[in-house]
Amino acid sequence: MYGYMGKILRVDLSEKTTSIESLDEKMARMYIGGRGFGAKVLFDELPKGIDPLSEDNKLVFSTGPFVGTLIPGSSRCVVMAKSPLTGLLGDTDFGGYFPREMKSTGFDVIIIEGKAERPVYLWIHEGDVEIKDAAHLWGKVASATQEKILQEVKDNKAKVVCIGPGGENLVRYACIISELRYVGGRLGLGAVMGSKNLKAVVVRGEKKVAIAREKELDTLIKALNYDLVNDGSCESLIEYGTWNTTAPAQVTGILPTKNFQRTSFEGTDKIDGEAMVEKILVGRRTCYACPIRCRRVVEAETPYKVSPEYGGPQYEAVASLGSLCLNDDPVAIAKANELCNEYS
Asked: Are residues 322 and 183 in the same domain?
């Protein structure tokens, strides 16, 4: 099939086994990828009424047909499970380079079930799958976890998603951290990883996705990239990243403030896009094959040391750690964001 690798990886942590299944073309056409695949798997396979933090829950990593191509904005990975936060269908997603790298291992979908007896991480590379011991990583924050894993797999091009102590301790809103700076932050799926004693998923691949009309797609991509950069529609996103949302949210009266008791914040001018750029911005990053480069990179020395390795806060973090807390200090917001990434 064009756009797909055609394989599903299933990992049973309880039995310490892995198996490979074919991705059915009918399923691909009906559910496309991402959330569609995840919802299909969970609807078909989860028993009714299970505890989201029990070994009966399943964790599904899924990509779509555009992932692995150069189509801008397509590098996304969706993770789904029954949510420990709501008890309902839970999905989160993140960008960066993990999605492309996962698909390059030859798998469109990874289904993780059961629970390991002791902490483990998955090492998936060129179609090979290893369930590796992670007892020595349990309790470590995300940066220390990633650093140690990359040393162990001896491949700095591998991409790591992991949890920190938040996920390990089953905090019901715990996140999944990818490459330290991309975050699957919704519905507590980091806690599902923790409930399975799964510290990390690590991927490295070289396989390429098949494209039906490659020359025509290349022509379309060039036109898309040109328009995205030059037609003005993404101008503020390129300049400020998602910080471009803060000031408009204040003007329109929808900026979350004081634990959602208010919808405007008198300190907005100290944490809006212009203020953040002036105070803490040191660079910009992008997800795979995206010309917009909306990811901000921040750094500070005082009053808190903030490392650029974690990227920087996006609008949601600025609102959550800023206006919702009546905090108008960009450095404090950036440091709090860094700590959230570390602890997942």
From this structure: no
Structure tokens, 112: 């993780």
Closest CA to 12 of 117, 98, 137, 127: 117
Q: How far apart are alpha carbons 115 and 133 in whole angstroms?
A: 13
| Beta strands at 89-94 and 77-82: parallel, antiparallel or unpaired | antiparallel
Domain count, the chain: 2
The reply to whether 224 and 244 lie within a common domain is yes
Is residue 36 domain-resident? yes
Q: What angle, 0 to 180 degrees and rounded to 10, lies between the N-to-C axes of helices 273-280 and 330-343?
A: 80
CA angle, 146 as apex, 140 and 151 as ends, to 5°? 110
* Mean of per-residue pLDDT scores for the chain: 97
φ, ψ for residue 12, nearest 5 deg:
-105, 105
Contact between 101 and 159 (Cβ < 8 Å): yes
pLDDT in tens, 68-85: 999 999 999 999 999 999
CB atoms within 10 A of CB 248: 13
The Cα–Cα gap between 170 and 13 comes to 18
For 156, the token pair is 């700095």
3-state class percentages of the chain: helix first, strand second, coil last, to nearest 5: 35, 25, 40
User: How large is the C-alpha radius of gyration of the chain?
Assistant: 20
In the numeric block, the tokens 């483990």 are attached to 120
pTM over 0.90: yes
